[in-house]
Description:
The chain is mainly alpha-helical. 65% of the residues lie in helices and 11% in strands. Strand 1 (4-7) and strand 2 form a beta hairpin.
Amino acid sequence: METTATFSTTTTNYAGFGQRFVALIIDGIIIGVIYGVILAPVMAAIGLGVASGVQNAETMTEEEAAAAAMGMVGAIVAAVGSIILIIYAIQVLYYAFMESSKFQGSLGKMAMGIKVVDMNGERITFGKAFLRSIGKIISGTIFYIGFLMAAFTEKKQGLHDMIASTLVLKK
Length: 171
C-alpha cells in the first residue's frame, strides 16, 4: 500500500526507499567523477612535493632531514584536511543547488523521477536545500542510519528530511 500526501487538491506519492537509494548511487558516481577531476591535480602536486622532499633528504644532515620530515607530515595533514573540506563542499553545494533549482532534485533524483519539496509540496529554497545537504552528512556519519530511516517512517523521510522539513515525492 502506498502512502500519499495531499497538498491543496493534488495527491502525490512519497518516493520509496529503493528509488531514493538508486538515486543516491547515481549521484555518488557523478560526484565521484567531479571529485576526480578537481582532486587529481591536487593529489599530483602533493605527490610531487613528497617526491622532491625525499630526493633532497639524501643530501641533508640528520637534523635537517628530521625537520624536513616534520614539515612534510604537516603539509600532508593540511592537504588531507583541505581535501576533506573540498569533498564536503562539493557534495553540499551539488545537492543544495540541484534540489533548490527548477528541477527540484539532483541528477540521480531526476533519473528516478522523484523530487524534493517542502512540507506544503512546494519547491524548496536554497537555504532549506543547504540545511538538507548538511543533514545528509549527519545521516551518513551515524552509520547511514539517517538514510535508512526513509524505509521505515510514515512519510518516507530520512533524518536529513526531518531536519530540513522536506519530503521526497514521485513526480
